[in-house]
Amino acid sequence: MFESLSDRLSGVFDRLTKQGALSEDDVKTALREVRVALLEADVSLPVARDFVKRVQEKATGQAVTKSVTPGQQVVKIVHDELVATLTGDEDPGKLKIDNPPAPILMVGLQGGGKTTTTAKLAKRLKDREGKRVLMASLDVYRPAAMHQLEVLGNQIGVDTLPIVEGQKPVDIAKRAKQQATMGGYDVYMLDTAGRLHIDEVLMDEVEQVRNAVTPRETLLVVDGLTGQVAVEVAQEFDDKVGISGVVLTRMDGDGRGGAALSMRAVTGKPIRFVGVGEKTDALETFEPDRIAGRILG
Ligand code: GDP
């Protein structure tokens, strides 16, 4: 297992005898540990470097308060800076879904958890906000994925658009819009096809769908355990189709969640939710404080 940052830092400061204020040398030594801890938590190198620089500016010359050790003090500065970086202006749990029917476009690579997350989010909107939700699968390449969404819909009591074979994704999207409008739904969610790698066909398809429905939210679903890859995927999707937020899945795994920090720092997009299991209720609103604690170990 990883050594926690607090443990590392108390080791560092035990060897130092300075008192009163954190000297530049103390801080430098501590920051080396912070950087290693961030990298171990899967934060990308440029993001970790930048982050450490900001912490250094805040920590140097700070008086050591009597009640805490220098190690604890640095941990607190790092924690606060993590939370500040991860926190945006928006309320992560509040999606822009007024003006019914509001389209939500779900995008991402295959296997990232897109279909499961679509169902989790639909359930949440229904149960917590009393929304009438319609889900539609646009994954014409994998009939199994379409059926998977239908099965999940039945499980959670959310309607799915009837499957019509041979339709193009953009036509399914238009049909979903029509049915959502006529059926008086508040929200319709479009679960787009994923590929193993980002390719042009995938992006063109998502673009066509986006142009057809003008989504209120375009949520990228990515596996939070894939670290730097997740950030690259987010950048590409944002460049090509524009994303409004991110859902990090598999945050119930062993990973330390550093992808969240890199994601926010690199793309500037809010992380809205985190997936914490396979069940349809295993979706939590993103909480910067909790992820910060996890990154620190
Ligand atoms: P898609 O190809 O992106 O639509 O991915 P799926 O929704 O089919 O998910 C792929 C696998 O990941 C399934 O076995 C899901 O149950 C699982 N999965 C999705 N989200 C999570 C999560 O947050 N935690 C865990 N442990 N498994 C997840």
Automatic annotation (TrEMBL):
Catalysis: reaction(s): GTP + H2O = GDP + phosphate + H(+)
Record note on domains: Composed of three domains: the N-terminal N domain, which is responsible for interactions with the ribosome, the central G domain, which binds GTP, and the C-terminal M domain, which binds the RNA and the signal sequence of the RNC.
Cellular localisation: Cell inner membrane; Cytoplasm
Major place of residence: membrane
Keywords: Cytoplasm, GTP-binding, Hydrolase, Nucleotide-binding, Ribonucleoprotein, RNA-binding, Signal recognition particle
Superkingdom of this protein's organism: Bacteria
Residues noted as binding GTP in the record, renumbered to the chain: 108-115, 191-195, 249-252
Protein name: Signal recognition particle protein
Gene name of this polypeptide: ffh
Membrane topology annotation: Peripheral membrane protein
Residue intervals of the SRP54-type proteins GTP-binding domain: 270-283
Any one biological process term the GO annotation gives: SRP-dependent cotranslational protein targeting to membrane
Sample GO molecular function, one term: GTPase activity
Role played: Involved in targeting and insertion of nascent membrane proteins into the cytoplasmic membrane. Binds to the hydrophobic signal sequence of the ribosome-nascent chain (RNC) as it emerges from the ribosomes. The SRP-RNC complex is then targeted to the cytoplasmic membrane where it interacts with the SRP receptor FtsY. Interaction with FtsY leads to the transfer of the RNC complex to the Sec translocase for insertion into the membrane, the hydrolysis of GTP by both Ffh and FtsY, and the dissociation of the SRP-FtsY complex into the individual components.
Top-level class of the enzyme under EC nomenclature: hydrolase
